[in-house]
């Protein structure tokens, strides 16, 4: 039986080779030198190295980890699952768990941004966008995620809500960036405070 091969153009091969060379050069920077750089510079170098490595070896369906992977804190994740199960029924614990699982597998690399919009989450969970807002609010109270407002040109109001995973819970991307983000973020609060809907 003939094997189907993925077509790679000459330009794609050249771009991957160039990315691999850049990543190799960046990796030659000594740990001693990096320690003397400001934190922002170290993060920028880490992000650039990671991006070049990814460009040199893009995800493919044939790979060991098709679509990439997310690193999880086992203890934090179990604590969050337990706290979600303990939510009162009117807080929709089953759907909150579904939202949390979707968040975990849809993270932008090196920022922890949740890539699914509120409407996309609503479609996947099978509920309204307003219900998603409340469920994301529950996860936010747990310090599982944080919310920022992103101004959109031509859009009135505070801007679109953008969510980020707490790096103490999960991460997708460079560990150097994750460490820097975690240093500026508190771990999820003691989740028993949310028992019975009180927070």
From TrEMBL:
<dbReference type="InterPro" id="IPR036390">
    <property type="entry name" value="WH_DNA-bd_sf"/>
</dbReference>
<feature type="domain" description="HTH crp-type">
    <location>
        <begin position="104"/>
        <end position="152"/>
    </location>
</feature>
<protein>
    <submittedName>
        <fullName>Replication protein</fullName>
    </submittedName>
</protein>
<dbReference type="InterPro" id="IPR012318">
    <property type="entry name" value="HTH_CRP"/>
</dbReference>
<dbReference type="InterPro" id="IPR036388">
    <property type="entry name" value="WH-like_DNA-bd_sf"/>
</dbReference>
<dbReference type="Pfam" id="PF13545">
    <property type="entry name" value="HTH_Crp_2"/>
</dbReference>
């Amino acid at each position: 039986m003939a094997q189907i091969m993925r077509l790679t153009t000459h330009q794609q091969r050249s771009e991957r080779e160039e990315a691999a060379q850049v990543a190799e050069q960046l990796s030659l920077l000594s740990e001693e030198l990096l320690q003397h750089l400001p934190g922002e510079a170290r993060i920028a170098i880490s992000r650039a190295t990671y991006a070049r490595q990814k460009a040199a070896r893009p995800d493919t369906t044939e790979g060991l980890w098709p679509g990439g992977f997310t690193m999880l804190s086992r203890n934090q994740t179990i604590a969050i699952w337990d706290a979600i199960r303990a939510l009162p029924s009117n807080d929709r614990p089953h759907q909150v768990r579904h939202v949390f699982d979707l968040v975990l597998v849809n993270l932008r690399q090196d920022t922890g941004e949740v890539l699914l919009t509120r409407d996309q989450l609503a479609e996947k969970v099978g509920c309204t966008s307003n219900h998603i807002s409340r469920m994301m609010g529950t996860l936010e109270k747990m310090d599982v995620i944080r919310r920022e407002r992103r101004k959109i040109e031509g859009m009135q109001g505070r801007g679109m809500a953008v969510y980020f995973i707490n790096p103490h819970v999960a991460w997708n991307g460079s560990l150097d960036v994750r460490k820097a983000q975690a240093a500026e973020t508190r771990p999820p609060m003691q989740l028993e405070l949310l028992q019975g809907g009180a927070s």
